[in-house]
Amino acid sequence: MERSWFGWRKAKKGGGGGGSKAEEQTKVLVDGSGIRDLVEDREAFGMFADTKFTQLDADGDGRLSARELEPAVADIGAALGLPAQGSSPNADHIYSEAMSELTHGHGNQEGVTRAEFQEVLSDILLGMAAGLKKDPIVILRIDGEDLRDFVSSPRYDPAAAAIFSQVGSEDATLRECLLAAVQQLRVDHGMPPATDPWIADNIVEPALKQLPADQLEQPASRDVFFEQLKKLLGDVAERLQEQPVIVAHTENTFDGSGVRRLLSNKFELDKRLDSVWRDVPKEHEKRASKEQLRVALDKMADAASLPPHGAVNQVDAVVNEALKKANADDGKEVDEAEFRKLLTEVLGAVMLQLNSQPIFFSTSTVVHEPLSTSSNLSSPAVAAPSSE
Q: Residue 129 CA to chain centroid, in angstroms?
């Protein structure tokens, strides 16, 4: 099994018992293990960091300015197979953490020395490894085979019926219904995200043109929709076979278990509460506005296995409701003891709500580079580790 510097690991479909060779070739897991292997090999990592510093130091002054550091974050993400910044909340959080680490404590004028870069890069990569171990990113090669299997399987008719019940109406044309349908299909159906511009322009639209033009602009009956959707997906599958697509897929279920673990570990909880209180702006001596509860809660999100604010709307709604019950927006000032008490109560309310109604969240993003393509940052001038 070939493994790159940053941990492309072949993963098999399904539970135990292994998968076929074809299955292994269409699904890999970015779990951070390769990153840890690299950083722990101090000689190889030193050569790697030195090479990357030289590549990034455009003006050759021996220091990396803030501007010179910006491509490093994008290159690290590309090396990991992460989707581009702005396209995946989970990946964006990793990018943000990486940039924060790179620029922390270094003025824009002085820049980062070679030794500092190696130290910070090590911290960044280990942080990424920890994040990917917790929330791995699955890289899928979608080539039409799974989509054909779905269309010919007993799953197709119930799925098509459910979709038509949502998108079909007297005013909706067949084209509109079909476009809405392919946008509802997911990677487990064998369909890449149809909202991606490249997929829409190069896969979906050309397939739509193979259907009868006069029918596409007419209202869609249930039977016509079933028949034409099956034809459309068959043509899409053929195009994916000719032009396979790489998709980065993540999924999480937020059920409150991470919050429960944090609340049940008094030592860890107190440590986190101490940390956020130190960072909270104080309105007057030893008192802070309750409005800071939202910021403090976001700083504790990772420890509570919650997404960062803004990443998952459904979780944000749960958090907002818990903060509302704590009157977090009333502008009143509280002392440290009350602040900690309120923050713990908010976490408890979030835990109970997620435990009763877990939230499933997934993202699928087209990676517009071949899986085998090496990025700038993942091409160190050192020998690669041996194959497994």
A: 14
CA–CA distances in Å: residue 182 to residues 150, 205, 228, 229: 13, 11, 12, 9
Strand partners, 287: 284, 335
User: Under a CB-based contact definition with an 8 Å cutoff, are residues 82 and 35 in contact?
Assistant: no
Nearest 5 degrees, angle CA 3-CA 187-CA 228? 145
The C-alpha angle 236, 239, 244, rounded to 5 degrees, equals 110
User: Is the Cβ–Cβ distance between 216 and 208 less than 8 Å?
Assistant: yes
Closest Cα partner for 139 from 192, 87, 98, 86? 192
pLDDT, tens digit (0-9, with 9 covering 90-100), for 84-118:
677 666 667 667 766 666 665 444 457 778 888 88
CA distance 148 to 309: 38
Structure tokens at 331: 């502008």
- Of the ranges 12-21, 227-236, 313-322, which one carries the lowest mean pLDDT score? 12-21
* Average pLDDT estimate for 264-280: 92
SS3 string, 106-142, reads CCCCCCEEHHHHHHHHHHHHHHHHHHHHHCCEEEEEE
Burial of 157 (0-12, 13-18, 19+ CB in 10 A): exposed
Outline where DSSP puts E strands in the chain.
Answer: 8-10, 27-30, 63-64, 112-113, 137-142, 245-254, 287-289, 333-335, 359-366
For residue 232 the two structure tokens come to 């459309």
Q: Residue holding tokens 């249930």?
A: 222
